[in-house]
Amino acid sequence: MLKLLASRFADFTPALVNEQQNSVFDANLNALAASEDSDKLLAADAQVSADSNFWLDADNYMARYRPYKVQNGMLLIPVAGVLLHNYPWATPWATGYTYLYEAFKRGAADMDVKKIGFLIHSGGGEVAGCFEAVEKMIKLKEECKKPVRAFAHEYAYSAAYAVATVADTIVVSRTGGVGSIGVVTSHVDYSKMLEDIGMKITFITFGKHKVDGNPYEALSPEAKDRIQSRINELGEVFVATVAKNRRKMDAKAVRDTEALTYTASEAIKIGLADEVGPLDEAMAAFAADPISTEEEDEQMSNATATARSPRSQTPSSCLAPGASAPLASSPPMSIIRRCSKTSA
């Protein structure tokens, strides 16, 4: 199982991780591979895109790995460990982009959810799936008009910081950190070791670039340049994502961080975070913040305008699992618009 996980980050696969936390990264992958449910969590048939049956029944043993907890109108979504593509679970060691999007989507449509929070403690993860999930959650946030806050407790680095930018406000614990806005990959060269033991590998290929970057030969300058170009392109996607979502920093300011990590106070100064404080106080403050009256008025207006159509019902795709559609009243138009886009 560990080899299966490690393969996600092998052979020039770009990653959004904080390289200063390699030991933590490895420990999380080891813990996931050694967990009692690793076979189920890493099963091939589980690593698929979510569908209408994503949320499991409460009596299903695996439902605990797809948490959805709403307290006092606030949904808190965990973002922990290594962030993985096509991984529909949330554990202390790894969280899937699929899970994050599905939890956010459910919270956006759930009328009992007034606010959404991300509880983040992650050094990053895969490039694959990250920016798409962030973009989709941003779109949902704009449609549902619900306040979103990210709590970096303790840290939100690289891919985890990309997720944090979905929030309107980023709060960092006093001993926490954010940043590492960069992309990394690596090449291993075994050629000298093989030469020392008297072994030589000869490739026979069609296409002169077929084996560029293989570990048995030194990396050619041309191959390195091509790999660097791809990494640069992904890095610019990351920069653009942060600049667009944060608004406090333009692309140059984000790029100039050069993938550094920042303490809470440093992050406030340059615009990567908004507030510093203990998690419990930050969450209590978020819960106490009043909901925008503008949004409440919009929802009330929409509900009043559509109440004249008694046959109208909330689209089933926008109901929380287990909920039934009201028969005597209609949903706000913002919900209808959201559902029509989702089902298109």
Description:
Strand 6, helix 6 and strand 7 form a beta-alpha-beta unit. This protein has helices spanning 2-6, 22-34, 38-41, 97-109, 130-144, 159-164, 191-196, 221-246, 251-255, 264-270, 279-288, 293-306, 333-343; strands spanning 15-17, 70-71, 74-84, 94-96, 115-126, 148-157, 169-172, 177-179, 261-263, 275-276. 39% of the residues lie in helices and 15% in strands. It is of the alpha/beta class. The chain has 13 helices and ten strands. Helix 4 (97-109) packs parallel to helix 5.
Provide a brief overview of the structure.
This protein is an alpha/beta fold and 344 residues long. It contains 13 helices and 10 strands.
Q: Residue-averaged pLDDT, rounded?
A: 86
**What is the ordering of alpha helices and beta strands?**
HEHHEEEHEHEHEEHHHEHEHHH
- Radius of gyration of CA atoms, rounded to a whole number: 23 Å
Through-space gap between termini:
38 Å
- Poorly predicted regions: 299-344
Number of helices: 13
Biggest sheet architecture: 10 strands, mixed
| Structural class computed from helices and strand pairing | alpha/beta
Number of strands: 10
The proportion of residues in beta strands is 15-25%
Helix content class? 25-40%
What is the overall silhouette? globular
